[in-house]
Design a protein that fits this description.
Order of helices and strands: HEHEHHEHH
Structural class: alpha/beta
Number of domains: 1
Largest sheet: 3 strands, parallel
CATH class: Alpha Beta
Oligomer: single chain
Shape: globular
Distance between the termini: 24 Å
């Protein structure tokens, strides 16, 4: 089976704090021809005026964004999940939901 990665990959941002991060993420996605973006409980309104200027032409990515209330719902239709973060965390969170989906 051949996958069309541009259409099958989903980028998920969890509890994004700044609207600028959404715009910059959309722009970065467009650089790699990715258009599917999901947000989980963003800490700003989707009509925030700071989003589109930072998206720099990735308006259609922003318009297609799917917003979810929780992580479980946002991944319910996905087969594989790869997670990453840019922060050092002192709090260790349970990853049981990930383990369930990976059958570990």
């Amino acid at each position: 089976m051949v996958y069309d990665l541009n259409n099958s990959l989903e980028i998920i941002l969890v509890n994004t704090q700044l609207p600028e991060n959404l715009g910059a993420t959309a722009r970065g996605m467009l650089n790699f021809y990715l258009e599917n973006l999901r947000l989980i409980k963003p800490n700003f309104h989707m009509k925030n005026e700071k989003i589109l200027p930072l998206s720099a032409g990735a308006d259609h990515v922003i318009k297609k964004v799917k917003v979810y209330e929780n992580f479980e719902t946002s991944i319910s239709d996905l087969d594989y999940i790869i997670a990453t973060t840019n922060r050092d965390r002192t709090l260790k969170k349970k990853i049981s939901i990930l383990m369930k989906f990976l059958n570990l």
